[in-house]
Amino acid sequence: MLEVMDSKEFRKQAHVLADRMADYFEEISDYPVKSQVKPGEILSALPLSAPVNGESFETIMSDFERIIMPGITHWQSPSFFAFFPANSSYPSVLAEMLTAALGQQGMIWETSPAATELEQRVMEWLRELCGLPASWTGVIQDTASASTLTALLSAREKTTGFRTNLEGFTGMGKLRVYCSSETHSSIEKAVKIAGFGKNNLVKVAVDENFALISAQLEMAIKEDLKKGYTPCAAVASIGTTGSTAVDPVDEIGKICERYKIWLHVDAAFGGTAFLLPEMRHFAAGLEYADSYVFNPHKWMFTNFDASAYFVRDPELLIRTFEILPEYLKTRTRGLVNDYRDWGVALGRRFRALKLWFVIRSFGAEGLREKIRLHNSLAGWLKDRVSEHPDFELMAPVDFSLVCFRYKPKVLSAGEDLDRINASLLSELNGSGKLYLSHTRLNGRFVLRMVTAQTTITRDHVLRAWDLIQQTALKLSLKIE
Ligand SMILES: *Cc1c(COP(=O)(O)O)cnc(C)c1O
């Protein structure tokens, strides 16, 4: 059996691909930001069965261009303003290529000492760069969802004296988890997976800025105690997904301390802002947290996936996840980190490499410059929305997200603004020129525009805002 590709051919194709990738980044604005394909369109272009004989790289690449590219939504486009970004950068892509070539599986120190020790160091760097408590210990997880699951499993074991790991949930009573009604869906998912049960997730009301009302949290805890339930964990958000609201972490932290509840802080998107000292007032109370997550794969130019998870007590984390089958017993155990005990998965990708490349290429100041630009672009957009008679700002703008809606004066009060804004969104995204997403705040349909792309400039935001106004006007003329 011949090798499918020899090193000569690999070298040739790798050069071709490098050029293709560079072309892609240079020409990314020529593509419709949101893929315009219909459901099933890509699937129907793919053969029902795998090929019997190997195919040439050229054939595969030509199908990639013909079939796959039209079905790509261009997350790296500077006019991608939807959801939260999963932004990337050249150094990150290059590191990812090396990662694939090395093919490391860093489950324990021995299987990749460099992956393990680089991870330790870059997590220390991140902790310092973001002004996080110096006593915290970090580990890379794949996603914020996995980080939060890890947090809730640790909380469960701490509260039950590690008995749930041994005996399951039998006889443990009802363990309760608290978060706000604006908290990300990954908390509910983790509550289900970790065995708490969805009915034991208590969603606390938010104030006019969509931040958790801490007095209501305390009331909920007291009520649960009266019923004989066991309060176990609370999740506070710094930068909710809907509107980047910030929960009062210091007040929540004090409550958690009083009732001996695990505090997990979810700063998946917003956490990157702590690179900026002037943003750290939003981190007040972070020292109360038992665990904390933010995603460099969202706003820190590190391509998906890389989630930074920090804990106050790594021993507790390890005790929650530790396994020690014979084949994993090593002579270095205890001297080094064996990250397989620091989360759900055994196998681990070498994610630290791209973080290292990114942090070193940008430098702390380079990263800060970008984040400042992104925040200022959102500030600029916020001012335009606020001063426009036919648009309405729907949430405070503290990070790089602006929540707004179209509210034309010409319409009577009975008009369905939700419907109009949904049409506006679909019209805008259908144009291929930009991509926005939406949420609901206070039950209202709201457009979300995030200005946090790696290559975004003021021009992209200016053009987007022009298009939004024009499209909205056209739409309202149609309605009249
Ligand atoms: C995006 C997001 C998550 C989920 O992130 P994943 O890494 O995709 O799991 C969780 N919490 C918040 C606040 C988010 O914005």
From TrEMBL:
GO-annotated molecular function: carboxy-lyase activity; pyridoxal phosphate binding
PANTHER family in alphabetical order: GROUP II PYRIDOXAL-5-PHOSPHATE DECARBOXYLASE (PTHR11999), MIP05841P (PTHR11999:SF70)
Obligatory cofactor(s): pyridoxal 5'-phosphate
Entry keyword annotation includes Lyase: yes
Protein name according to UniProt: Glutamate/tyrosine decarboxylase
Residue ranges that the Swiss-Prot or TrEMBL entry lists as coiled coil: none
GO cellular component, one term: cytoplasm
One BP term from GO: carboxylic acid metabolic process
Family as reported in the entry's similarity comment: Belongs to the group II decarboxylase family.
Record keywords, A-Z: Decarboxylase, Lyase, Pyridoxal phosphate
One family name in Pfam for this protein: Pyridoxal_deC
Cross-referenced InterPro entries: Aromatic_deC, PyrdxlP-dep_de-COase, PyrdxlP-dep_Trfase, PyrdxlP-dep_Trfase_major, PyrdxlP-dep_Trfase_small, Pyridoxal-P_BS
N6-(pyridoxal phosphate)lysine modified-residue sites: 298
